[in-house]
Structures are given as structure tokens and as C-alpha cells.
Design goal:
This protein has helices spanning 3-12, 14-47, 81-107, 114-146, 149-175, and strands at residues 55-62, 65-72. It is mainly alpha-helical and 182 residues long. A two-stranded antiparallel sheet has the order 1-2. A hairpin with a 2-residue loop joins strand 1 and strand 2. Helix 1 (3-12) crosses helix 2.
Length: 182
Amino acid sequence: MRAATWESFACKHKLAAQFIKFYAFSMLVTLFQYLMLTFLPGVFFRYTDWCSIPCQLIHLSLGPVDTYVFNYPVTGDATGGMGYFAAFAITLFLAQCINFPMQRSITFRSKGNIFYQIAWYVVAFVLITIACSFLMGLYVPLCKQFFPPAVYNILVTVINGGVQMVIYFPIYKIIFPEGEAH
């Protein structure tokens, strides 16, 4: 799309234009996360014994659902244990370090108090990560059971990324108000 055409569209359809930018940046960050989660767990598996240490945090029992929010049992390979959890945590942190400035400055063009925005971003990130990790406890076992690791990684990344995008966009609209700082 030419710059003039995009600007015309963005003026007429501000919310849609924001969502398109948000979606594009989210896809780039999701690709980054996929690449990191494809290779980083192998590094932990090869150079540490962390993948042999179970990592099961925040136990929840809600009716028929009995799971851990962060459930990384030892699997005998790079997809389990503390090694995979560390790779997951590092990947999420780095992804947010990329995502925050892009969404704040480019998508929402916010000039609000950056310290306030970082604080609320961190709160939202932690709560959404916990919620999405809980949901992963429901569908990841099925993905692992029915799909090979390469497909499993793509499915988990796309499902988790999709759920996060639906949650994050309205939250970002609140955290990143447009205009000058007050």
C-alpha cells in the first residue's frame, strides 16, 4: 500500500489502522518468539541439566481442571523441565522488550508518562501471561499427544499469540493513550 493511500485509510479508519499495525507487530514478535523457542530450549538441554529439573508452578484445581499454571515436567528432551521454562521466560521477556516500544511509539503514538506505562504494561503482562499459561495447560497436552514437535511448537505459538492479541489490544488502548503527556 502506498504511503498516501495508507495515510488516507488511517485517517478514515483510525481504530482499524491501529489494529493492523498492532497485528503486524504482534506477528513479528510471535515469529521472534517462535524462533527463540525453536532453538533456545536446545541450548539449555545441551549445556545445562535444567531440563531434568521439573518446573511446575501455581497449582490450580477448578472442578474437572487440575493443572499447573506453569507446567513443565521433565520430558527427557528440550521441551520440558526448568530448561524449557527458562527458555520460555527469557523469550517472553525479550519479546516484550521489542513489543513495548513498537506498540507505544508506532501503533498508538502515545506520549504518556513512560514510567506509568511501563508499570501498567508489566502488570498486564504478568496477569495475561498467567492466564494464557493456565489456558496452555488445557490444550498443550493435546497438541503434544497428536502432533510432532515442529507442528506442536507452531500450534502453541499461534494459539497463545492469538489469545494474547485479543486480550492485549484493548489493554494497550488504555495503557497507551494518544497525544501529549499530561
